[in-house]
Structure formats: structure tokens, C-alpha cells
């Protein structure tokens, strides 16, 4: 009888202990799961921010490439003017040659 009681008591203790550990593990699992989801959300937000900033930087790079400085614009204008003048001169020469041929 005594042995049975002792054995029963030991078994009860063991069950209680197991129950405690199971509950503790469940709590830990839940906490880990919450932390994991929180970390994932933060990581996704950071990635979204990186994507937005990279898009902005790409846009700014593109716009910077298309923008010219005042000096470059003046140089381009001069080149265009020179080309137009050369074309006019060439046209005049061609016209003179045609006139010469006609006479």
C-alpha cells in the first residue's frame, strides 16, 4: 500500500512537471512565432523602402543625365548655328554652280 501511494505520488509529480514543461514550451513557441512575424514585417518594410529609394535615385539619375549645363547648351547652340551657316553656304555654292551650268 505504501509503495503504491509513493509510486502514485511520483507519477503525479512527473505528470505535473511534464504539464509545466509543455505549457512553458507552448508559451515559448508562441513568443518565437510572434517575434518571427514581427521581424519579417520589419524586413519587408525595409525592402519596400529600399525599392522606393532605388526607384527615386534611378529617376534622379535619369533626369540628371538629360539636364545639360548652361555651358553645354551654349556649345550645342553654337554647333547648330555653325552647321546651319555651313549648310547655307553649301546651298549657295550649289545654286551658283547650277546657274553657271545653265548659261
Structure description:
This protein has helices at 2-66, 70-102. With 103 residues, the chain is an all-alpha fold. The protein folds into two domains: 1-67; 69-103. The longest helix is centred in the N-terminal third of the chain and has 65 residues, at 2-66. The model has no long low-confidence stretch (mean pLDDT 85). Residues 1-103 are annotated as: Disordered. Residues 41-55, 72-103 have a biased composition (Basic and acidic residues). Residues 1-40, 56-71 have a biased composition (Basic residues). This is Protein CBG18178.
Return the average pLDDT rounded to an integer: 85
Q: Element order, helices and strands?
A: HH
Number of domains: 2
Number of helices: 2
- Proportion of strand residues: under 5%
How is the main sheet built?
A: none
Pairing-aware structural class of the strands and helices?
A: mainly alpha
Radius of gyration: 43 Å
Q: Sum up the overall morphology in one term.
A: rod-shaped
Helix content: over 70%
**Terminal Cα separation, in Å?**
145 Å
SS elements, strand count:
0
Low-confidence runs of at least 5 consecutive residues: none
Amino acid at each position: 500500500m505504501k509503495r503504491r501511494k509513493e509510486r502514485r505520488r511520483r507519477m503525479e509529480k512527473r505528470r505535473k512537471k511534464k504539464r509545466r514543461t509543455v505549457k512553458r514550451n507552448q508559451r515559448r513557441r508562441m513568443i518565437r512565432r510572434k517575434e518571427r512575424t514581427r521581424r519579417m514585417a520589419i524586413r519587408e518594410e525595409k525592402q519596400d523602402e529600399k525599392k522606393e529609394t532605388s526607384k527615386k535615385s534611378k529617376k534622379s539619375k535619369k533626369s540628371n543625365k538629360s539636364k545639360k549645363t548652361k555651358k553645354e547648351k551654349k556649345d550645342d547652340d553654337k554647333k547648330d548655328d555653325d552647321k546651319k551657316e555651313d549648310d547655307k553656304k553649301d546651298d549657295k555654292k550649289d545654286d551658283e554652280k547650277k546657274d553657271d551650268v545653265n548659261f
